Amino acid sequence: MLRNDIQFPYGAVYFRKSNPPREDWERDYATAGEDGLNIFRHWFMWGAIEVAPGIYDWEEYDRQLDLAATNGIKTVIAELIHAVPDWAVRKYAHALQINADGTKLSSSMGVSAATGGFSNNGGGAGALTLNCPDVKEAAGNFLTALATRYKDHPAIYGYDVWNECNYSADVDYSSYAKAAFRRWLEKKYGSLRGLAKAWHRYSYAEWDDIEPPVHMAPYPECVDWLQFKRDNFYDQMQWRIDTIRAVDQKNVIAAHGISGSIPNMAANGCDDWLAASKVEIYGFTWIQARKGTEPWKSWYGVDINRAAARGKPFWHAERQGGPLWLQPQVIGRDKDDGRVAEPEDIRIWSMTSLAGGARGVLNLRWRPLLDGPLFGAFGSYGMDGSRTPRSDMASSMAKWANDPEQAALWEAKPVRGEIGILVIRETQEWDYLLNYERKEKPYPEAMWGAYRAFLEQGLQPDWVHIDDIDTYDFLYFPYPIMFTAEQAARLKAWVEKGGTLISEACPGYFGDRGHVGQVQPNMGLDAVFGAREEEVEFMPDIGERIRFKLDGLAADGGGLLQSYRLTSGTGRGHFIDGRLAVVENSFGKGRTLLIGTNPSVAYYRSGGRTNGAFFAALIGWNGRKKHVTLSNSTLFARIHSGEKGSFLWLVNPTRSAQSTEVTLAEGLGTLKPGAAAWPLEHAYDGRKIEVPARDALILALG
Fold first, then answer.
1. Is it true that the peptide bond before 679 is cis, omega within 30 degrees of 0?
2. Of 123, 425, 125, residue with least CA distance to 266
3. Closest to 129 measured CA to CA, from 233, 247, 9
4. How many other CB atoms sit within 10 Å of the CB of residue 401?
5. Cα separation of 162 and 513, whole Å?
6. For a FRET experiment, which of 67, 155, 378, 494 has its CA 20 to 30 Å from that of 249?
7. 449: which residues sit within 8 A by CB, 6+ positions away?
8. What is the distance between the alpha carbons of residues 248 and 324, in angstroms, rounded to a whole number?
9. Which residue, among 7, 22, 32, has the nearest Cα to 380 in the 3D structure?
10. How far is CA 386 from the centre of its chain?
């Protein structure tokens, strides 16, 4: 059901009911069409359209699609059933979602739309629970009416469901959610006796005796609550899709998250892999004003989305195009750290996403809001809809991307990275519970630290879900403290078949339901790593004091400490007190390296100033060759390959032009002299390469 009538979707989010002013619509659409933008997304808010039960006001939305058709612009309908009608809040007051502290959600003004009907603490879940049959029926009627009205409109491209795919960590404790939780438990455990054994609660007489946990802590009942919420909200996402598909079988259904799998998969349901699995096109919101402009962060945003999409097309669905004022994420940061977007910022942010594999870009505002706390934010066009240097940059990129000359460029896709960073949802869930009330958060620091370390060594580190490990032969597992016996068996078999696994301390220390293994490494992994635990120290608050060596190379630890005694492995390094810290082992056709601390945490906390040589040594230990070797470490390289051609992307996030020499790995092609795909005025003459400031250079490979 993918569309082929647009070579490269390049556009913006335009209509949010409160903005832009009606008198500007016709002019704005004409401007967008002239500037090469070919797609708009609008918020179709339930609370703004169904003004009374069964009474729909479509007039302003009809006008959007009609103007789009006139100006050659396609429309993505963003369904926002979580923006609920105020009459529904009254009618279904019994179905308001409830926070862990017992407070009910309410209908509030929307920060990003300046209209009513949004929840004050529901994330993307809304004030009303879809676990209530009456609410679900009413919302379903709206979705059915929506799809019925627009499915055959000449301007429709498709639908975007469940905006940003997340929910609040504190919801939902309504009676409807509790009943759904009990049904979920009964399906999982079959009987109260089975539940009692798993939860260590032995006096439930009826299923109605079960209450969801309010205080989050490392217990099986909390694990089940997190997993139920994930299943429940994603079942509701699937219901949205099924409801639309029952009416419209031909147009695209898309979704976008916030690239939040690290670290918000457990708390807020930001499971990009699960969300992407349900739709034909996935995407991500990534706003440097909120995240920071450090290059590794921009790469993380696109790379984890590419991994989650698993080969499907994906878009940078909300990219910043203008400034952000007064919001807490920007306070105290430098002006040029995403607070005031310059044209060159739009270019480098877009090019990083495209180099990472994104095949569509939408600015999250075509022009800024005029009301509410996000006034003036994010738009590349002016407050009055006039053109700006930022919009001129976006226009030039939109026209370039849709030139037929670039068709081969977009058909090519990033090749597989040299190394994978292993992601297991259960690991994050357990760390979230284990460290819920602690200021130390070693899990995200380890995950981001490892990713950044390999990225800044010139590799393409891919995020690899445990279900996808068979497509990789080299994995790094940061902070692997908990996973299931089934996942342990899968890892064991993967190594035995020839995989190379580098693991940080305490792999599988906690097994099924968080139970600690009496033999460590747990679940039979001692055989895989060729060692057993001698001592362990869970002291992440002073983890920065850990020091060790790998083959004489000094390195800093962090997080946890686990020392070993050898079984079949070989010692490769010690802590400074003499305890064994690093063990190499051969297992079946594969190899392992076990590191008894978390050097990734040290890399993250030092901002990359610590352990660079250590991570370079790990690459050398494996013998892995880089796809692209550059003489200039400020640049980033990606190889894209396709049936119509292959390309080298060189990305320069700095504010000055950068020169480099380039060496390509065998089998990935050769640089051939000729015109660059971007910038259009550039060419490669066989000599040293220069990449313009805050820009990319794209060269064809022979």
1. yes
2. 425
3. 233
4. 22
5. 30
6. 67
7. 478, 598, 599, 600, 601, 602, 603, 604, 605
8. 37
9. 32
10. 33
With the CA atoms of 672, 675, 681 and 685 taken in that order, what torsion angle do they form, in degrees rounded to the nearest 10? 40
HSE (CB half, 13 Å, CA atoms) of 647?
Answer: 29
What's the pTM value of the predicted model, to 2 decimals?
0.98
pLDDT above 70 coverage of the chain, percent: 99
Residue 75 sits at the vertex; the CA angle it makes with 130 and 114, to the nearest 5 degrees, is 55
Angle between helices 295-309 and 343-355 (to 10 degrees): 40
Q: How far apart are the first and last CA of the chain?
A: 33
Nearest Cα to Cα of residue 236 among 423, 421, 82 = 82
Query: CA nearest 436: which of 219, 122, 208, 135?
Result: 219
Nearest to 608 by CA among 617, 595, 599, 598: 599
Q: Judging by beta carbons within 10 Å of its beta carbon (0-12, 13-18, 19+), is residue 206 exposed, middle or buried? A: exposed
Question: Which tens digit of pLDDT belongs to each residue from 337-360?
Answer: 999 999 999 999 999 999 999 999
Q: Closest Cα partner for 501 from 491, 509, 511, 510?
A: 491
- Whether the Cβ atoms of residue 228 and residue 184 lie closer than 8 Å to each other: yes
H/E segment holding residue 74: strand 74-80
Distance, in Å, from the CA atom of 329 to the CA atom of 202, rounded to the nearest integer, reads 46
Identify the CA nearest to 364 among candidates 317, 315, 305: 317
Q: Contact, 168 vs 118, CB < 8 A?
A: no
Residue/partner pairs of 70-73 with CB below 8 Å, 24 or more apart: 70/29, 71/29, 71/30, 71/32, 71/33, 72/33, 72/38, 73/11, 73/29, 73/32, 73/33, 73/37, 73/38, 73/39, 73/40, 73/155
| Residues in the chain with pLDDT values less than 70 | 1-3, 122
Q: Residue 51, SS3?
A: strand
Residue with tokens 């335009």: 14
Compute, in degrees rounded to 10, the torsion defined by CA atoms 213, 219, 225, 228. Answer: -160
Please count the other Cβ atoms lying within 10 Å of the Cβ belonging to residue 26.
13
Query: What is residue 674's predicted lDDT score, i.e. its pLDDT?
Result: 93
Distance from C-alpha of 527 to C-alpha of 474, rounded to nearest angstrom: 19
Q: Which two structure tokens, joined as six digits, stand for 414? A: 């990033």
Q: Which of 144, 136, 135 is nearest to 87 (CA)?
A: 135
| DSSP code per residue over 480-519 | --B--HHHHHHHHHHHHTT-EEEE-SSTTSB-GGGPBPSS
